[in-house]
Design a protein that fits this description.
It contains twelve helices and 14 strands. By secondary structure, it is of the alpha/beta class. Bound molecules: S-adenosylmethionine (SAM) and iron/sulfur cluster (SF4) (2 copies). One iron/sulfur cluster binds next to loops.
Length: 386
């Protein structure tokens, strides 16, 4: 393990990322009483958003996430017993919600590859926030199985969906997913989600210079006026296998400038604290935002750090808790679940972990040595799901 595969332009380390990730000791429960109430970290950031990765498998091999050279036939995925069961996920989600989580996003790998995912959605939809409301329940998917599953997911209580789509050009799309998957099937999935009544559908496009940046205006025109919000994501240096280079990042400011050269756009106010996207509205003939034409978003994870508002925790498919996309360490909550810890003990552990959080990788990026987060090997995006 650990040798390098030399590609035309990049060096991809072939290692089992998971084994390299530090496994810190879960903090001992400070109290055995069930701790509830909004948690804040050391930088006064509240815990509001929980992203749950339900599988490490994917049927795509996007080069920026699961490059074929690393995630090939020999790659060993987790066994089914390693994955948290739906009941375990729901139990943790309930404890997180008692600590202030309002929004739950299911992700992966490709979450729709997890069998009977609608049963998990059903269980999560029964949970309540500290104010007694249903959680904002959403899912990020590559869309390949959405046409088949949208209706069942909606019926189970899923409210929203985000579909990743990097190009409308079939040849470019097939190249980017690297498994020759046709774009028409993803577009059919988006239509099925609309027909099923899933609200506020978003489409995420990772923009990579020289690969799909020429598709920016076409994507924008395609989704303008459809009720779907397109968001352009800066290609990020997540994980350690995608051979990231700064010159392949298209800064959000450039994306907006390119769009404004063709169509009128006006800046919009953020709709929620901790929102990752900056919003821009399509303007009508009077130069003002026309809600009928909708909006686009840009997520500037590289050029404009948003750590100051970061309120997200990430739970991996095997029950490790990560507090940053660029983390090198995750806390093993599964051993608490399977070691017969009480709700009060797990809840206190979650509180101790969040209250000790100080992550702000994107703010520090420029001053850190390459290929490190906080000292150690970064976890892959396909493991914690974005
Ligand atoms: N498979 C699902 C999908 O593609 O939507 C969910 C998991 S995927 C890891 C979640 C999101 O992360 C996707 O929108 C994907 O485009 C994004 N992503 C993965 N690697 C990325 C990178 N290096 N930079 C920016 N976004 C990335
Ligand atoms: Fe799979 Fe999503 Fe990663 Fe693409 S971005 S390889 S679809 S997990
Ligand atoms: Fe949050 Fe880490 Fe991203 Fe900063 S770098 S916004 S702390 S996930």
């Amino acid at each position: 393990m650990g040798h390098n595969l030399r590609m035309a332009e990049r060096v991809i380390p072939i290692v089992d990322q998971r084994s390299k990730v530090l496994q810190p000791q879960v903090p001992a429960a400070a109290t055995h009483t069930l701790a509830t109430g909004q948690l804040y970290d050391t930088r006064a950031r509240p815990l509001r958003d929980l992203r749950i990765s339900v599988t490490d498998r994917c049927n795509f091999r996007c080069g920026y996430c699961m490059p074929k050279e690393v995630f090939g036939k020999e790659y060993r995925y987790l066994s089914h017993d390693d994955l948290l069961r739906f009941e375990e996920i729901t139990r943790l989600a309930r404890l997180f919600m008692a600590h202030g989580v309002h929004k739950i996003r299911l992700t992966g790998g490709e979450p729709l590859l997890r069998k009977h995912l609608e049963r998990l959605v059903e269980q999560l939809a029964e949970l309540r926030t500290t104010e007694g409301r249903v959680p904002d329940l959403t899912l990020t998917t590559n869309g390949s199985l959405l046409a088949r599953k949208a209706r069942a997911l909606k019926d189970a209580g899923l409210q929203r969906v985000t579909v990743s789509l990097d190009s409308l050009d079939d040849a470019v799309f097939r190249r980017m997913n690297d498994v020759d998957f046709p774009v028409a099937e993803v577009l059919a999935g988006i239509e099925a989600a609309q027909a099923a009544g899933l609200a506020h559908i978003k489409v995420n496009m990772v923009v990579k210079r020289g690969t799909n940046d020429h598709e920016i205006p076409r994507m924008a025109r395609h989704f303008r006026g459809t009720g779907i919000t397109l968001r352009f994501i800066e290609y990020m240096d997540v994980g350690a296998t995608n051979g990231w280079r700064m010159d392949q990042v298209v800064p959000s400011a450039e994306v907006i400038a390119r769009l404004r050269a063709e169509l009128p756009l006006v800046p919009l106010a953020p709709s929620a604290l901790g929102e990752t996207a900056q919003r821009w509205g399509w303007a009508g003939a009077d130069g003002r935002h026309d809600p009928g034409l909708g909006e686009v978003g840009v997520i500037s994870s590289v050029t404009q750090a948003f750590c100051g508002d970061c309120n997200r925790a990430r739970l991996s498919m095997e029950g490790r808790l990560y507090l940053c996309l660029f983390a090198t360490q995750g806390w093993d909550l599964r051993s608490l679940l399977r070691g017969a810890a009480s709700d009060a003990q797990i809840s206190a552990a979650i509180a101790n972990i969040w209250q000790g959080r100080s992550d702000r990788y994107s703010e520090l990026r420029a001053s850190l040595p390459a290929d490190t987060g906080t000292g150690g090997r970064r976890i892959e995006m396909s493991y914690i799901g974005g």
